Amino acid sequence: MAQSWSSETPRSETPTLNDENDTEFLKKCAAEFRWNDLSKDYVMDIGCGAEMGFSKALLKEYPKVSALVAVDKEPTVFLKAGPFDQRLHLCVGDIEERNSLKQYEGKISKVISKGTFHQIKDKELAFQNVYRLLKPGGEAAFLFCLECSFYRLLTSMLKVPKLKAMFQGIYIENLYPKEHGKQYYIDMLTKIGFQNVRASEELKRIPFSSDEQCRNYLFEIYKDEFRVQSEMVEEFKDEAFQICLSTSGRYLRKPYYRASNLNLCGVKPLESSDSKTEQT
């Protein structure tokens, strides 16, 4: 019996969009699909990021893995990749651009993506490309954000004329549509051709250790998004913190980060002509 993907565990640590431990997510994938030693598997990590946390965790837990392709669309990600591992292949590619990964189509046993798909605009296209990458019988697992308190915070900050005038970043309207929940993505993967599609939502509440930690953290994540003069830093921290409290309140008497994450997985059928993906 595969372990449940539903949890709500408060933790006092610095929140991030990818707060779940890489090894923890890896173990969930392994339990869900009943992985063995992966010695015959070609695995792909989509959106590996500069730290390549999930890729490193997989190489450590599965030293016999046949090969692992770490994919990111930003070439700079691999500039500090660290010591070369012969099992690891680094690939600059965009899952929304089919041609950038076409060389791997039909060759991948397992596609994993953690903390990436909430940033993808055309998710259906991306899922279709994942389907094409998989061998018949191949498995795919995704973990991404459905709703995030920091997005609500930014939305509220941009309603303040002074802060809006300072904003120089990118804001995407309706980034997390309410109607795009668990069933929406189950239906999407099923339409593409995946079988045995499963999904669960999990709520994460992560308190900051103190008000001051929250103030400093908000400045760190937004200092490149807003033009903040040095003499305005403390005022900016205060305004961001007060808006954070007004939009999210407190949890365990502390300011906190809140996110709803989706765990989504499916299998490409053993007999597949890719007809569904070719029609789109």
UniProtKB/TrEMBL annotation:
<protein>
    <recommendedName>
        <fullName>Methyltransferase domain-containing protein</fullName>
    </recommendedName>
</protein>
<dbReference type="InterPro" id="IPR029063">
    <property type="entry name" value="SAM-dependent_MTases_sf"/>
</dbReference>
<dbReference type="Pfam" id="PF13847">
    <property type="entry name" value="Methyltransf_31"/>
</dbReference>
<dbReference type="InterPro" id="IPR025714">
    <property type="entry name" value="Methyltranfer_dom"/>
</dbReference>
<feature type="domain" description="Methyltransferase">
    <location>
        <begin position="40"/>
        <end position="141"/>
    </location>
</feature>
